[in-house]
Amino acid sequence: MSTMFKNFVVLCLLYSVNATHFITKINETVHHNVILEINKPWDPEMYAKKVILSNATGVITSQTFQLLTELQELYLVHSSIEYIHQDAFKTAPKLENIQFSYNSKLPFLTNDIFKNCKNLKKLVIGNNKFIEGISDNLCSGLQNLTHVEITKESKIPKKLTNNFFRNSKSLESIKLHFSNITSIDSDAFKELKKLNFLSLVENEVNEIGPGAFGNENLLRLYLSWNKLKYFSGEELQDLRNLEKLDISFNPLIELDVERIKRNAPNLKSLSVAQTSLSCNKKKEFMKKGNLSFHVHIDRNELEKCEA
C-alpha cells in the first residue's frame, strides 16, 4: 500500500470521526416517552445544548443528566415525574434555562433542587396539573437568576415574603400569575435592586405591606385582577422611578392619589379601569390638572357616572 493511499485512508477516518462528533452535538433535541431510571444516566445519544423532554416518566437523580455536560436549556413538558433529587442538576453546570410546564405530576419543588444551578438565568414553572408543593424560599440564593415566571400554580405560598427571592439580586423580571397569592409582606421585593418589571396579575391579593416593592429600578408594576379594596400609596415607598402602575379590575373603594404621587414621583401612567371607586372619585381624577401622570379609566364607566 502506497504512502499516499495510507494518508488518504487516515484522512477519511478523521473526517468520519469529526462528522460523527458534529452530528451528535447539535443545538436542540426533542425526546418523547423517555423513562428516567433511578441512579442511571440518561443517554439521549445526541448531546444538545437545548433539550425538550415530553411525556417523560420516572425520577430525576444526581446521575440523570451527567452525560449532558453542555446542557444549557431544559424543558420538561407533559410529563409525570415522581421525584427530583436535590443534586439533580449538579452535573449540568452550564444550565441557564429551566422550564417545567403542562406536566401531569411533579414532586415538591424546593430550593435545594436549583441551588447547584450556579448559572441559572431563567426559571419558568406553569400550568402543571399537579405539584406536591412549592417551598417558601424556592428562588432564594440563585445569584445569576434574571427572570422568573410562575403561572397557574396554586401551591405557591399564599403570603409572599422576602424569603422567596432572598439573595437572588440579579432578578430583573418577575411574573407570578393566576396562582392564588393573597398577601405580600413588607419588603418582599425590596432587596431586588435590579428588578424593573413585576407582574402579579390574576391572583387573590387583598393586602400589601408598606414598602413591599421598594427599589429605585422598578419601572412597571402590574396588580390588576386581584382583590384589593384599599390602596394607600404607602405600598409604593421608594419607587422613585416607577413609570407604570396598573391596579385595574380590583374592587377598590379607596385610593390615595397624593401618596402615590409622593412615593412614585416619576409615574407616567395609572390604570384604574373597572374598580369600585365612587363616581365622585373617578370624576376627580379627570379634573385634576396638576397630576403629572395619565389616569386610565374606562370611558363607559365615566358615561355611567354622567347618566
TrEMBL record:
InterPro entries: Dev_Immune_Receptor, Leu-rich_rpt, Leu-rich_rpt_typical-subtyp, LRR_5, LRR_dom_sf
Superkingdom of origin organism: Eukaryota
Keyword Mitochondrion applies: no
Signal sequence range: 1-19
Organism of derivation: Henosepilachna vigintioctopunctata
Gene3D superfamilies, per database record: Ribonuclease Inhibitor
Pfam families: LRR_5 (PF13306), LRR_8 (PF13855)
Alphabetical UniProt keywords: Leucine-rich repeat, Repeat, Signal
Regions crossing the membrane: none
Name assigned to this protein: Uncharacterized protein
Taxonomic placement: Eukaryota, Metazoa, Ecdysozoa, Arthropoda, Hexapoda
